[in-house]
Amino acid sequence: MASLARLANRLSLRTMSSSAIPSVQKVVLIRETGGPEVIRYEEDFPVPKISENELLIKNSYAGVNFIEAYFRKGIYPSEKPYVLGREAVGTVVAKGEKSGDKFEIGDKVAYLSPGTFAQYTKYPSNGKVIKLPQDISKEKLITTAASLVQGLTALTFIDEAYSVKKGDYILVYAAAGGVGLILDQLLKKRGARTIAVASTDEKLQLAKEYGAEFLINSSKEDIVERVNEITNGQGVEAAFDSVGKDTFETTLQALKRKGTFVSYGNASGPVPPVPLNKLVPKNIKLVRPQVFGYITADDEWEHYSSELVRLIDSGELKIKVFKVYPLKDYRQATEELEGRKTTGKLVLEIPE
């Protein structure tokens, strides 16, 4: 039985690159839950072994998302050790015998997967992967790494969590963050009237540059009062709330009758259990979506990923990269992100 297993393993990897793939790699992971102090940069973590249906991707850049903090804090459960990361760009360096002919060794790719804060990630050949041009520039690689999760989040949410229409008043929290700046642009393109919420005037000006029409400084203005002023007391058709616990009641008050509450983040902590009768007075629709639930089917992935690439390539959508950090400095990156010291997207450069 053991000899058969070894033979199967050799057969599954016979299309591997001739260049040597190391047995260990550099990664960022957690072995316990907690604050930023539990983040570990390790240089001797095993390189994953691929099956006959998988690709091995050598990562170049990985995007930083707030969801990593949710896993680190234990808001979302995970097995330990847990390599962080959700998206990356890189190069296919090995493929299993039954991984098909869609991808070849040497292909540049962008993909969605857990465990991308690492030099190598294994991934199903039929997974959420985009083939990139072979001559893609370093700048475009970084932009691509910065766009996948947040760009697809914004695109799917304005279609499916709430189908935005021309003239809708839409409340956007963290409007100068990665998702926020993309929402500002897409909502303007749809003809909606975006009300941007951020904690500083500088962030609000950035949101305005990216398409927001109205601005609310949450550190010195009453959000509900300002929303009522802007909408003549009607409230907003929908709110995209990534803050969570601290803004839940405020968002309920800011919505108009039959409004839609899109709650998609826990930046201030998870929203406590909500009695359904809280939604009754204004017939509120409450949704708690995540992007991966909208791109599960192949046709969904093809539709939204193609549209994201088109928007970026055409210049209709700008991706603002705040800073590129070395992989070993992820702790600094997330401390700045969680401390609300950043705008746009953070990216990690993976060491060679």
Automatic annotation (TrEMBL):
| InterPro entries per UniProt | ADH-like_C (IPR013149), ADH-like_N (IPR013154), ER (IPR020843), GroES-like_sf (IPR011032), NAD(P)-bd_dom_sf (IPR036291), QOR-like (IPR047618), Quin_OxRdtase/zeta-crystal_CS (IPR002364)
Oxidoreductase: present as a keyword of the record? Answer: yes
Query: CDD domains given for it?
Result: QOR2
**SMART domains for the chain:** PKS_ER (SM00829)
SUPFAM superfamilies from the UniProt entry: GroES-like, NAD(P)-binding Rossmann-fold domains
Reading the lineage from the top rank, the first entry is: Eukaryota
Q: Which Gene3D superfamilies match?
A: Medium-chain alcohol dehydrogenases, catalytic domain (3.90.180.10), NAD(P)-binding Rossmann-like Domain (3.40.50.720)
* Residues in Enoyl reductase (ER) domain copies: 34-348
NADP found in the keyword field? yes
Tell me the keywords, alphabetical order: NADP, Oxidoreductase
Q: What PANTHER family does this protein's entry cite?
A: QUINONE OXIDOREDUCTASE PIG3-RELATED, QUINONE OXIDOREDUCTASE-RELATED
Q: Write the protein's name.
A: Quinone oxidoreductase
